[in-house]
Design goal:
Elements lengths: L12 E3 L10 H28 L6 H18 L2 H10 L3 E3 H34 L4 H4 L2 H19 L1 H7 L16 H5 L7 H34 L4 H34 L5 H26 L1 H13 L1
Antiparallel strand pairs: 1-2
Helix pairs in contact: 1-2, 1-3, 1-11, 1-12, 2-4, 2-6, 2-11, 4-6, 4-7, 4-9, 4-10, 7-9, 9-10, 10-11, 11-12
């Protein structure tokens, strides 16, 4: 008999899903995953350290970058240790409440990251299209408030999914598709009415990530229009060059997110390995790529990071 109080026919946990057809190789595949996690932690911590210790970088652009690094740190840390313990030690069980908590953090942090990426796009728009007003519009205090709004917005929009899951009765299998808990995956294990979960999940994605991606696209259309109106080729290259790193980070976040959403909603007949691979790319790629992209494209961060390593 299904229980609506967060148990699964007497069980109070879920079983994490591994890599279908590659169970024997999971132990060895955990090593590159661990290396990616180390790169994400070290890279994002380095960005936080460099910006904190360099007064010259205490400007909105780098404060937003610090927010992005902090979100990536928390996101990877709330998922990767459990995944590694599963692959290395077979600890594939996660408690019901722990699963709901992980679900909340994954979705709310994704919402916060989306908001921060939008704020970074606006920062680039103001810096290129209205350079004389940039310091007046984006003050440090206003930047901090934007960061707070990003966190609160993500929490408000993505607190309901775990609560909607908690009301559902569960029956049958308690094995997840992914090695972590996301709303779409847990929801499909329920045997009750999932329509409120489906409707709200889609609404939240469109209201946060969908709206943000549309606004980011619109912002870059206006930036491109301004850049093309600049007099010299050198000015156009310099102005567009300040946006390259942000565009790469936006693509690293939204492309896996859109791919995972499409696979979950329309790819039920696809091999399970496709679902798992898309989920891991969505979770792992942004925290690893973001610090590498900004270190490669931003000479201030690269120079100060190298200086710090030489001192150490």
């Amino acid at each position: 008999m299904p229980h609506p109080n967060g148990t699964l026919d007497g069980f109070s946990s879920f079983i994490l899903g591994g890599l279908p057809g590659m169970e024997a190789a999971q132990f060895w595949l955990a090593f590159p995953l661990c290396a990616m996690y180390v790169v994400a932690v070290v890279g994002n911590c380095a960005i936080l350290f460099v910006v904190r210790t360099e007064p010259a970088l205490h400007v909105p652009m780098y404060f937003f970058l610090c927010m992005l690094a902090a979100v990536d740190l928390v996101m990877s840390t709330c998922t990767m240790p459990k995944i590694l313990s599963f692959f290395w030690f077979g600890a594939g069980e996660i408690g019901y409440k722990a699963c709901l908590a992980q679900m909340f953090f994954i979705h709310s942090l994704s919402g916060a990251e989306s908001t921060i990426l939008l704020a970074m796009a606006v920062d680039r728009y103001v810096a290129i299209c209205h350079p004389l007003q940039h310091s007046a519009i984006l003050t440090n205090s206003r930047t901090a408030k934007i960061g707070l709004v990003a966190v609160v917005r993500g929490a408000i929009f993505f607190l309901p999914p775990p609560l909607l899951v908690n009301r559902l009765p569960f029956c049958g299998s308690n094995t997840l598709t992914h090695s972590y808990c996301v709303h779409q995956d847990v929801m499909h294990l329920a045997c009750g009415d999932r329509m409120p979960n489906i409707v709200y999940g889609l609404t939240a994605i469109l209201a946060v990530m969908g709206l943000d991606s549309l606004l980011i696209f619109t912002t870059y259309v206006m930036i491109l229009k301004t850049v093309l109106q600049l007099a010299s080729r050198q000015e156009r290259i310099r102005a567009s060059g300040t946006c390259v790193a942000h565009v790469c980070v936006v693509l690293a976040f939204y492309v896996p997110l859109i791919g995972l959403s499409v696979v979950h909603r329309f790819g039920r007949d696809l091999p399970l390995l496709v679902h798992v691979t898309m989920g891991n790319v969505y979770l792992l790629v942004p925290p690893v790529l973001n610090p590498l992209v900004y270190a490669a494209r931003t000479k201030e961060i690269r120079r100060r990071a190298l200086k710090a390593m030489k001192i150490a």
